[in-house]
What we know:
Blueprint: H1 3-6, H2 10-18, H3 34-39, H4 43-54, E1 61-62, H5 63-70, H6 74-86, E2 90-103, H7 107-113, H8 116-127, E3 130-131, H9 132-137, H10 143-156, E4 159-162, E5 165-168, H11 175-186, H12 195-198, E6 201-202, H13 208-217, E7 228-240, H14 242-245, H15 249-261, E8 264-265, H16 270-275, E9 284-285, H17 304-318, E10 322-323, E11 329-331, H18 332-335, H19 367-378, E12 400-402, H20 407-414, E13 422-431, E14 443-452, H21 458-471, E15 478-482, E16 488-498, E17 502-512, H22 514-517, E18 526-532, H23 533-540, H24 554-558
Parallel strand pairs: 8-9, 10-13
Antiparallel strand pairs: 1-7, 2-6, 2-7, 3-5, 4-5, 11-12, 13-14, 14-18, 15-16, 16-17, 17-18
Helix pairs in contact: 4-5, 4-6, 4-15, 5-6
Amino acid sequence: MPPAASGHSPDAARDRRLIxxxxxxxxxxxxxxLAQVVERLHPLECxxxxxxxxxxxxxxxxxxxxxxxxxxxxAQVTMALGWLQTKGLVAIAAEHTVELVGLTKSVVRYSxxxxxxxxxxxxxxxxxxxxxxxxQADTSRTPDETSDAIGALKKSGAVRIVAGAMEIxxxxxxxxxxxxxxxxxxxxxxxxxxxxxxxxxxxxDIPDAAQEIVRRHHHRRNQADGIFxxxxxxxxxxxxxxxxxxxxxxxxxxxxxxxxxxxxxGALTPAMLRTGAWQGTGRAFRKYDITLPVSRVQGGRRHPYxxxxxxVKQKFVAMxxxxxxxPLVESEFWNMDALFMxxxxxxxxxxxxxxxxxxxxxxxxxxxxxxxxxxxxxxxGATGSRGWRxxxxxxxxxxxxxxxxxxxxSARTLGGQPAIPGKYFSIARCxxxxxxxxxxxxxxxxxxxxxxxxxxxxxxxxxxxxxxxxEMAQAAEIQFRPAYFPFTEPSVEMHVRHPTLGxxxxxxxxxxxxxxxxxxxxxxxxxxxxxxxxxxxxMALKLSDIRDLFSADLAAIRNMPDPLFSTAA
Length: 569
């Protein structure tokens, strides 16, 4: 019977060793000579193997106990055990995963000053009612902490806002905040040292009710401003295989002695070849096992997300769309004012938009364009609208910001005499001051588009959005929900079902209002949309975290699927 059929070929033996199975001594090398195995051992392997052989042959060892016994660094023990597994001398006896919980640095002051919601509640109890402006002016907390705390208290129903001030409405609804405070304090010592300084606590050691609170408030990826950190650790125990137990102690000791004395040469260098120093020394070269698996050679290719962006562009061009372009640094005029977004709108506050330092201005905007947009804001101008009824600031409209929405590119295009009928798209990089999580990032790509013409209807928009969701995001389930935007009426949000995250918003769309199109010289219906390309890529690339699009993990990037689209247009 051929060796391969009997299951004793070198390849079959190597495959079984890689998954931790015992193999016959004859399977280790072609000749079955254990002495040859010893000759290939690395000094680290010799150290670990000798300690395993010195103990009970049936005993199991952890990486930690081996490191203490062999006086090796943890990384060295892990590396040596991996090599010995590959050679079939050591196998994994058991493996289990432990979920650990720790506290981030921010909880040091939370344990002594209380979490921000309870700080605000304590102040309200002292004064009965506290103006929101006073809370926002308090420098003992960051603005984000104050804002989040006010929102959490209001959402819980524990407080109510009356005439711009907060007062307690239901003391019983404060219980979740008090429970969170108790858990934080249970993780700290009397001197308020966070548990992450002393180590981690197993999730199973925490009561079930507290576990639910921990999972609700932990920040993934160990963000420094979170409350709890949760990580998993895998613990393994190792044992000698049958062939490992048959390694002669004497030959192993001799091998270790030769390595320690430098009797073996590790490599033949150019200098040794020039001088002939390798000849006549009586020293042998270290032997290498050429049957061991080698590292996979990876060829270069474009990043999957870049390939996705290229496919999106190809898809739009194939459908007859022309590409729009605009600057990353944009004026308030094109970014917001031309879109009928009032200058007192909350989205224009510093917490949403990045302003360019030094208050530079864009002097390229024509005065007559500003006058028409200002009239639409103040009284509706020639659009038939009443406008927003406030005094438009013509100086402010020239200030520069980082582009916060791709619709700014559409506004520039509409103000530049576009073709009618016409179809336009852009892939716009946008910037907003936003908390980073699985679906949000401070800079992101939007695919922006407009279609204008006398025959354009809202149903045209819904058909295009459905096409984009299916063709580009590879979404199977789609929902349209009513929405509000200052520049469109009617307005709609498109949501798709992510296999892990559930329903996720892709973006907004609608029919541009006359207050937008009229001042820019457009007298036909215009539909517009702005969809989050990063989220669409998450769907197409089967990712559950937007940050994975920009991961530095080459192995994870290589395993991303190719973002191929179907051929249907």
